[in-house]
Amino acid sequence: MTEIPRRAVARTAKLASLPLGVAGRVAAGWGKRLVGRSAEEISAEMSAKTAEQLFAVLGQLKGGAMKFGQALSVFEAAIPEEMAAPYREALTKLQSAAPALPAKTVHRVLAEQLGSGWAKRFTEFSDEPAAAASIGQVHRAVWHDGREVAVKVQYPGADEALLADLRQLERFSRLFQAVVPGMEVKPLLTELRERMVEELDYRNEATNQRTFATAFAGDERVLVPRVVASAPRVMVTEWVTGTPLSAIIRDGEREERNEVGGRLAEFHFSAPARTGLLHADPHPGNFLVLPDGRLCVLDFGACAQLPDGLPETLGVVTRLALEGRSDDMLDRLRSEGFIRPDAELSAEDVLAYLGPFVEPLRTEQFHFTRSWLQGQAERIGNLRGPDFRTGRSLNLPPQYLLIHRVTFGSIGILCQLDAETSLLDIVTRWQPGFADED
Questions:
Q1: pLDDT tens digits along 183-241
Q2: Which superkingdom is the protein from (predicted)?
Q3: Cα pseudo-dihedral 74, 141, 162, 400, rounded to 10
Q4: Is the dihedral of CA 4, 9, 11, 13 positive or negative?
């Protein structure tokens, strides 16, 4: 494969193989039941094979399909444990793995973007990719001034593949809905499509990353690599060596998990105030832990413009929920468009729906666990439960959709880390409206 498969027919056929493959395994499963195998044994085998196919298809297609897989991997902590095990490894692979481009294709892109003399800009350049992303892969090199650098090269055909993938994935949203109970997949796909158009021009990402690098320069807890050079399809940044966050999730010690969780939470809540931007791609593949304990943040292609920081309304509503002021909270939600105009809701029902989400702020230290997040997903996803009915009357205004997804994604990583951290201190300092008195 020399580039992202661009032909719509070929890409659609690959994506269509996902639901077809699941259907085939269901049929095969019934056959195995007839010969005496248990339902539990068959279900586990089917889940494992579905996960394997999910990685193979989304990873090969890269582009929007792989981006969707990365987004789903963040929500893995919300999946019930009996379903999560076979999916966990496959979805986590999508955070950093994809088939590599051949060297001649990489060289062609570099020549197109940096000029025919591109090689003179480097004293060393490794043709073997060091990492892969949804729309590009990263090569290790040495810049002409001796600095070690990371060179991100966009896959040829990425622009055509992105939107085609997401259109097709929307057709199969019901299949993926089963992977993450309680989460609406279609809005996720719609929002991803809007963000990814921006990601195609690496000059936008370079501008975002320069802003973050300047704001966090000298920070003792977070590092953002500096940008060395950029073009529409190629970006060169300082090279950073560290431990992937996925390795901490898998094998980290308790103290390390807690420290990393605190740094991640502080980065999420403080960045909008410090930069006017929200890093909108929170999955473990975009974070490294440095030997000195700092959290290194990567990939600034998807960022939301928040010139005034996080919206004050979020802080006010969170505080009112904590204080049990249900009537005031409902009034604020209505005035900001969070309640559907035709909905008749009691303030107590809305507080019952939102209250459990603010549990991490009721104590000085909160232990983020998979079971806690799974409980929240099951609670709002239970078709027969009162919270499901309340949730159908709530509305998420468009300007809050990305913030909601990023916050939930960050919390998902905290739960994957099994981290115990003082979220209350962080939110009190950085979330506008939370510490106000009224």
A1: 455 665 666 666 666 778 899 999 999 999 999 999 999 999 999 999 999 999 999 99
A2: Bacteria
A3: 40
A4: negative
Whole-number Å distance between alpha carbons of 235 and 301: 11
Q: Strand 122-132 relative to strand 287-289: parallel, antiparallel, unpaired?
A: unpaired
Distances (CA, A) of 385 to 116, 337, 372, 381, 388: 63, 24, 18, 8, 6
Which residue carries 């992977």 as its tokens? 179
3: alpha, beta or left? (left if phi > 0; alpha if psi -120 to 50): beta
427, 424, 290: which is closest to 365 by C-alpha? 424
Render pLDDT for 64-122 as a digit per residue (tens, 0 to 9): 445 555 555 545 555 555 444 444 454 455 444 456 788 999 999 999 999 999 999 99
Q: And the tokens for 154?
A: 């966009």
- Can you point out the beta strands (E) in 48-114? none
Distance of CA 182 to the CA centre of its chain: 17
Q: Which residue has the tokens 């880390």?
A: 417
Q: The pTM is what? A: 0.76
207-238 CB burial, b ≥16 within 10 A, e <16: ebbbbbbebbeebeebbbbebbebbebbbbbb
Output the six-digit token pair for 160: 């055509």
Among 10-14, 151-155, 277-281, 284-288, where is mean pLDDT lowest?
10-14
Domains of the chain: 8-95+174-182 (no CATH), 103-158+197-238 (3.30.200.20), 242-438 (no CATH)
**Contact 187/35 with Cβ under 8 angstroms?**
no
Residues ≥6 apart with Cβ < 8 Å to 325: none
